[in-house]
Amino acid sequence: MSRLGDLIRTERLRQKLTPKQVARKCGVSESYLLAVEAGTRIIADDQARRILKTIGLRDQTEADFTLDDIAATVDLAQVAPQMAKPRPKPAPAPRPEPEAVRVASTNPEEDKDEGVAGSVWLDALQSVLKRVPVMNAVMKPVDWRLVPILQGRIEGAAPDKVFYFLAPDDSMRGFRIHAGDTALIVPAQSPVDGAVMLVEYNSHRYLRKVKRLEGMQVLLQSYDREYDAVTAPISEVTFLGRAVRLEIAL
To answer: How far apart are CA 214 and CA 25, in angstroms?
Structure first.
């Protein structure tokens, strides 16, 4: 149970109100309210205000809850598809009409949509989770992963600069990277000695273990059934990033 859900349920029971009574006053379904209390439903900020106000807690708003509290109200399996949808640019706000009043919905399906779309709480989640693309060998997205953001960074890099690379073959299995595994790539435009890097060489992109050599050259190492290496001038290799994490395919 989340802190918000616990607060709502505790106050509702203290006032001897049934879920149906509170739900009816708030214009939501009883099942929706019970899911909020259990911490298994995302809830829009205006819905949170309305429920808290209905049970007499007028001074509590979403600002009183930390990101951990917000995340605790969310089933990430439910939220992930919503976060995966492109966020449209907001249209210019229309000039408000006088005496405009928002009418609470009595349709559970509308409540379901309102609980996700446009929520300040979902925006807060997107400040701690990043939708990171999985790129294939031609740098086209084929999948997505939700990755935690720590102190505004992912593995020390800007969140919008990282991506996963899908290993297309077994050319790196000697380094424990098999076809179908995904490597998290962070920006690196110069060779990092001893690192596995995503490189572009001779019009091909692949993961290779890099070793710096004298004379401004690098050794691009692979290991399928046997060890192989190619010596190349640094000027002829494009370094797209460094692999910092590997997720294996089972």
So the answer is: 76
Beta bridge partners of 207: 198
C-alpha to C-alpha distances, 44 to 52, 81, 89, nearest whole angstrom: 12, 17, 19
Over residues 181-220, the pLDDT tens digits come to 999 999 999 999 999 999 999 999 999 999 999 999 999 9
Angle formed at CA 232 by CA 199 and CA 209, multiple of 5 degrees: 45
Name residue 199's amino acid: V
Give whole-number Cα distances, 88 to 83, 118, 121, 127, 189, in Å: 12, 11, 17, 17, 32
Q: Pairing state of beta strands 182-186 and 163-166?
A: antiparallel
Say if CB 104 and CB 26 are below 8 A apart: yes
159-192 tens-digit pLDDT? 999 999 999 999 999 999 999 999 999 999 999 9
Contact 123, 79 (CB under 8 A): no
Evaluate whether 191 touches 210 at the Cβ level (below 8 Å): yes
d(CA 26, CA 35): 14
Which token pair is 77?
A: 């399996």
CA distance 34 to 48: 13
